[in-house]
Amino acid sequence: MLKSDVNYYLMLIGAGGRLGSMILSELLTNKDNLKDKLGITKIFLVDKEERREKLNSIVNNYPNYLTLCISNLVYMSEYDWIQMFMDYGNKTGKFKIVINSYLVLDEGEEWKMETNLIPAMEKSMVQRYVPADFCVDHRHFHKGQLSKIDIRKKISEYLKVTDITFTSVLCGAIMERLFNIGVDKDYPHLIYYYGDEALAESHLIEATCIKDIASFLVYALINHFDEVRDCFLQIVGDRFTIRELQNLTSQLTNKEMDCVCLGSLKDLDRKIQVLNEENREDKLKERIGLQYMKSYLCNEGKLTKIDFKYADPTQYWTNLKGFISKVILPQSL
């Protein structure tokens, strides 16, 4: 058991989102280990106003353990973050870990939020930051290739010149996001992609489901806190081709899935470029979604060294078949 006269806290930003909710569930399941091994005695949940009711229902079950902080996260200044750390933490203890699971689609807003948050954490002496990576390995993309990936690279480089230690999780495609991007909601028997027949047959997409990401992250922080200092941790739940995705989804749902090629990878690049130049707010989700799709379909983001040694040895990793059976089928794809 970790003995300390200091109260240590953890802050979870984006606690009401899909990934944040799963991370919160893992934190609550492991709250005794958080205290015994890391000395963390309280968790602060930070999110936007729309998620207040959802999070309040969780906080009410743990009144002495969870505190809810609602704010307009993207527009918080460095001073605002410092005040939050001071008001909720530094008077009574220290923030040991800040986990950012908050998805900001717009690149400019994401950069603004991070460059206000990171200096505030440094000045508030936060020990460990988990940035909102949770994507392909962004380190090998060249500048200007994908603007969304550029921001993740810039944030990583920005972190390296601070005194904050970090633990980043690189997981390939998030399975839930992959289905949101590639499967038409109005015509759920269609799978859209860019490329050609050879790509559909041979290119392996790396993907991990949200539950596995959350389980891995929380276990690694609790049991390998010092070992995963300043690390990019790589994990993957499964690897599969577009054709395998089509065939397995057809088999498990008893609905014939069709793959629709929307053009070549160069066509995808041109589409992304046009959307970037237009920079329309009503096209933001499409623009970022296509960038995620491109990152899954090219080789620059491939994971090279899988870090399962930091995972719970009893953890069951969800493959594509398990994900479709447990997540997609109940939603009546």
How would you describe what is shown here?
The chain is globular. Helices cover 45% and strands 17% of the residues. The strands form 3 sheets. Strands 3-2-1-4-5-6-10 form a 7-stranded parallel β-sheet. Strands 7-9-11 form a 3-stranded mixed β-sheet. The protein is built from 13 helices and 12 strands. Helix 10 packs across helix 13. It has 333 residues and is an alpha/beta fold.
N-to-C order of helices and strands: EHHEHEHEHEHEEHEHEHEEHEHHH
Quickly count the helices. 13
Strand order of the largest sheet: 3-2-1-4-5-6-10
Largest sheet: number of strands, sense, barrel closure:
7 strands, parallel
Q: What is the 3D shape?
A: globular
Helix content: 40-55%
Enumerate the spans where pLDDT stays under 50 for 5 or more consecutive residues: none
Mean pLDDT equals 91
Distance between the termini: 47 Å
| CA radius of gyration | 20 Å
Instruction: Please report the total strand number as a whole number.
Output: 12
- The secondary-structure class comes to alpha/beta
Strand content: 15-25%
Task: Summarize the model shown.
With 333 residues, the chain is of the alpha/beta class. Helix content is 45%, strand content 17%.
Task: Spell out the key features of this protein.
333 residues; alpha/beta; 7-stranded parallel beta sheet; 3-stranded mixed beta sheet; 13 helices; 45% helix
